[in-house]
Amino acid sequence: MDQVSRRGLARGAAWTVPVVAVAAAAPVRAASQLRCGVLDWDSFAAGVVPTAPLATTVPGVTATPVVSYSSGTAPGSNSGKVMAGPTGGVSGNYYRIGIDNVKPNDIVTVTFTFSQPVTDLNFTMTDIDTHHVEGQNKGWQNMVYVSPAPTTSSPAGNILGAGTATSPWHANAPYDAADTDGSDNVSVVYAGPITTVSITLTNGGSAWGHGNAAIGITDLSFCTTP
Ligand SMILES: [Ca+2]
Ligand SMILES: [Ca+2]
Ligand SMILES: [Ca+2]
User: What is the distance in A from the centroid of ligand 1 to the CA of 93?
Assistant: First the structure.
């Protein structure tokens, strides 16, 4: 084949091939790329329950939260809602779970299920505090654990416990942490791949049965599997 006819072939091909070539190339490129993004609470209106499945910043990847309460637990009026921050010193909207008029050992759990396995999942739980009414044997104690166990966890300075059902994270001293105070936060990382993670807030035992209890959950960052 001489040069003229090869150019002629290429020119001829250019009229018919491009649409097919682009369509075929796109899925190959997407499948080979690690895509990272966020379930960004700022994507949703504050003060309402967001309509699941929730879009993330990665096209095609969604997350669905399901909130459940133990028998007799009164759902917090803002539980399961996107709320305006800050919480635990983190700005922007956040997701809240809570209990109203807590009784000893009340439980609320939120389970997030992604539409596909994700890696490098990380988020922060905020405002894991305790409030004891001075001179009275009443108040509330936030105790928090996650399932499955994270790859790593980073409790802030005021937090004790291991983040398990038998040793929940909790504050080491009773005070109602302000929304701007990050000393009652715990950040976790899951190497994954993981599809589902549960976060549970329980109230303390018999000494704790007064007031409304809640924690915040920040944006969930993740990557898709390659
Ligand atoms: Ca955000
Ligand atoms: Ca709290
Ligand atoms: Ca607080």
Answer: 6
CA distances to 40, 56, 66, 115, 220 from 194, in Å: 18, 16, 17, 11, 13
Architecture, CATH, for domain 36-224: Sandwich (2.60)
In the chain, where the domains are located: 1-32, 36-224
162-206 confidence digits (pLDDT tens): 999 999 999 998 888 999 999 999 999 999 999 999 999 999 998
Q: Which residue has the tokens 């779970």?
A: 97
Distance 79 CA to ligand 3 centre (A): 15
Q: Which ligand is nearest to the CA of 176?
A: 3
Residues 6+ apart with CB under 8 A from 163: 144, 145, 146, 149, 150, 153, 155, 169, 186, 188
* Cα 161 to the center of its chain, rounded Å: 20
Q: Which residues surround ligand 3, an ion (CB under 5 A)?
A: 127, 129, 176-177
Distance 144 CA to ligand 3 centre (A): 14
User: What stretch of H or E contains 32?
Assistant: helix 18-32
- The one-letter code for the residue type at 140 is W
